[in-house]
Design goal:
Its EC number is 4.4.1.13. Keywords: Lyase, Pyridoxal phosphate. It comes from Propionispira arboris. The protein is α/β, with parallel strands linked by helices and 388 residues long. The protein has two domains: 117 residues, Aspartate Aminotransferase, domain 1, CATH 3.90.1150; 227 residues, Type I PLP-dependent aspartate aminotransferase-like (Major domain) (Aspartate Aminotransferase, domain 2). The protein has 13 helices and 15 strands. Helix 3 crosses helix 9 and helix 5 packs parallel to helix 6. The mean pLDDT is 97. Bound molecules: pyridoxal-5'-phosphate (PLP). Pyridoxal-5'-phosphate binds next to helix 3. The site of pyridoxal-5'-phosphate has 13 residues, from helix 3.
Length: 388
């Protein structure tokens, strides 16, 4: 079996890299959600081989892409899907936008759980729909619970037609239990609300939790959802801008496909589908080793904060490599907090209030980097906090 070296420090500067080419050279970037790890060797080999062919004409839509998605869902999550349920999309966010076009009307309400991944705050109003935020409730131990009572009152509003679920949840790192997902599904069915489940982070689930694809809950749930997937977070291939939607119900599938067809957005890219096929078909070893490495980073972070920076707290991250840090004891307004980490500690993270209600006082740290870089960043943060 190939052993991937996640400790390798790779220079990404000057590669048109959003994470590394946005801030000054002396800032350690731990913000946007891609990893600093090289992608799996079989992916690199396949891309090089395809590039060397030298002809990059129109691709035919064969079934290899769909089969790769079918494969992964079955072997990793036990969800048996058909290749006919899978639709190519240019990444996950465009897939969510197509779903908004397909299953809601202008002026409708779409429910999201706050705090929420920041593009959700844009794509809903930008397309003429309203956001209804259901606040996740922060518990004493740092975990989050769903306020089901409020959720139902939002779902029951006349113009509420969609629930946009982020499962597992970015930015809190919550992995929803089967019981919670079933309850969401029941409430959405009861109030005729369609579910879009963004499952882009589903491969990064820490010990003790389990990802359950929304469409695998029941026949009724499957008939009332679109599940959006992308191996981009796991295998570090977000730049190829390709993803997929799984739509189990044929009628829903046709509704979803209509905006893609109208926008002529179904054209695939040969360098988009290939890495997805190779990752999902041949690179389980990489996903397993990545998770193990991230567990190590997370343990290091927890111990470091507890022993050296107790004013910064993490709750119970169950999923994703985006760690939600409670910095309220630093007593700073959001703008000041961002400035402190960026200018004093020289570590770029996502400031919590950009995720909406419940985000102020938090910072989101991306720990998908070689351990040495995490150690350096934490030492810098410790030094700056001690100087306050
Ligand atoms: C929850 C979530 N959805 C979607 C995306 C973006 O996906 P894509 O690049 O496939 O549009 C991200 C990226 O960070 C994310 O965290």
């Amino acid at each position: 079996m190939i052993k991937h070296n996640f400790d390798e420090l790779i220079n990404r500067k000057g590669t048109e890299c959003k994470k590394w080419d946005t801030y000054a050279d002396d800032v350690i970037p731990m913000w946007i959600a891609d990893t600093d790890f090289k992608c799996p060797q079989p992916v690199i080999d396949a891309m090089v081989k395809r590039a060397e062919h030298g002809i990059y004409g129109y691709p035919v839509n064969d079934k290899n892409f769909e089969e790769a998605i079918v494969n992964w869902q079955k072997k990793r999550f036990g969800w048996k899907i058909e290749s006919e349920w899978v639709e190519y999309t240019p990444a996950v966010i465009p897939a969510i936008v197509y779903a908004i076009y397909a299953f809601t009307n202008p002026g409708d309400n779409i429910v999201i759980q706050m705090p929420a991944y920041h593009p959700f705050h844009a794509i809903i109003p930008n397309n003429g729909r309203h956001i209804l935020g259901n606040n996740l409730i922060l518990q004493e131990d740092g975990s989050y619970e769903i306020d089901f009572e409020n959720l139902e009152s939002l779902l029951s509003q006349k113009r509420t037609t969609m629930f946009l679920l982020c499962s597992p949840h970015n930015p809190t790192g919550k992995c929803f239990t089967r019981e919670e997902l079933n309850k969401i599904s029941e409430l959405c069915l009861k109030h005729n609300v369609f579910v879009v489940s963004d499952e882009i982070h589903s491969d990064i689930i820490y010990k003790g939790s389990k990802h359950i694809p929304f469409g695998s809950l029941s026949q009724e749930a499957a008939d009332n959802c679109v599940v959006c997937v992308n191996p981009s977070k796991t295998f570090n291939i977000a730049g190829v801008r390709t993803g997929a939607a799984v739509i189990p119900n044929r009628r829903n599938h046709d509704l979803f496909y209509a905006p893609l067809e109208n926008l002529k957005a179904y054209g695939r890219t040969i360098f988009g589908t290939l890495p997805i096929e190779i990752s999902y078909n041949e690179c389980d070893y990489y996903a397993d080793q990545l998770l193990e490495y991230l567990e190590g980073n997370l343990e290091y972070l927890k111990k470091f904060l507890a022993e050296k920076i107790p004013k910064i707290k993490i709750g119970h991250p169950q999923a994703t490599y985006l760690i939600w840090l409670n910095c309220k004891e630093l007593n700073m307004e959001p703008a000041k907090l961002q400035q402190f980490f960026m200018e004093e500690a020289k570590v770029a993270m996502n400031e919590g209030s950009t995720f909406g209600t419940g985000g102020a006082g938090f910072m989101r740290m991306n720990i998908a980097c070689p351990r040495a870089r995490l150690v350096k960043a934490l030492n810098q943060i410790e030094k700056s906090v001690n100087m306050l």
